[in-house]
Amino acid sequence: MTLDFDPLAADYDRLRPVGHAWEELSERTLAVLGDFRRLVDVGCGTGRFAAFAKARRGGRVWGVDPAPEMLRRARARPDAGGIGWKRASAERLPFTAGWFDAAHMHLVVHTLPDRPAALAEIARVLMPGGRTAIATFATEHFARFVLNPYFPSIATIDGARFPDPATLAEELGDAGFRGAAVERISQPISAEPRDVLERVRGRYISTLHLLPPAEYAEGLARLERDVAAGRGAFAYSLEWALVSATR
Description:
Blueprint: H1 12-15, H2 20-33, E1 38-42, H3 48-57, E2 60-65, H4 68-75, E3 83-87, E4 100-106, H5 115-125, E5 126-137, H6 140-143, H7 153-161, H8 165-174, E6 178-191, H9 193-201, H10 213-228, E7 234-246
Helix pairs in contact: 9-10
C-alpha cells in the first residue's frame, strides 16, 4: 500500500518535535557523508534535514519529495533560504547524472514503491566518490517498539515494510555502490504519556494508518484509559541503522 503523505503535512513537525535524539542522529549522518559541495535529500518531507545540513555545512542543498503539501511546508520554513526544492519521486530524480557528491534518505526506504530503482537513481546522480547515507530502523527496533502493547500488528507490519540493514547494504552494492557499512545507533527515550497519546491520535507514524481500523480504535482507547489513570513515562529506545556507501 502506498500512502499519501499530503494529509499528514500539517501536523508532521508538531508531532515529531526536534530534540536531542534527532539532532544526534543528524550529526552522525553528516559525519558519515563527510565534506560535500552539493547534497540531495531524497524524500525530504517538510525539509527539516535539508535545512539542518545547510545550516551546519553550507554548500548547495536540494530537497526532493513527491508530496506537494510537504514541499509547500518545506518552502515556507524560516530556514529554507538557499535550498532548492523539487517535486519528484525517488525513482525519477530530476537531476543530471553525477551532479551531487552527497545523498541522504531518512526513514524513506520502507515507503518506496521500487527500492532498487530508487537506489539506482541515487547512484546515477552521485559523482564517483560521492557518499550516500540512509537512516532506517534496525530489525530489533520493531520487537521492542513502545506502542506494541497497544497495537500488536505494528511489529508484523513494519517488519515486512523495512528492509533488513544487511539486505539494504547488499542492494546498494547491486546499485553500483561500494564499501557499504551499517552503523547501529541506540537512543534511550523517555516520553510523557500525554505526548505519546497526542502523537498516536495524530497517527504520527505511517504504520498507524495501515492498522486494521478496529485495532487502531481499541488500542487508542486503551492508551487513553492508561493515560487518564496516571500511567508513568514511556521509557524505550530507538534502534537505528545508518547505512552508508560510496559511489
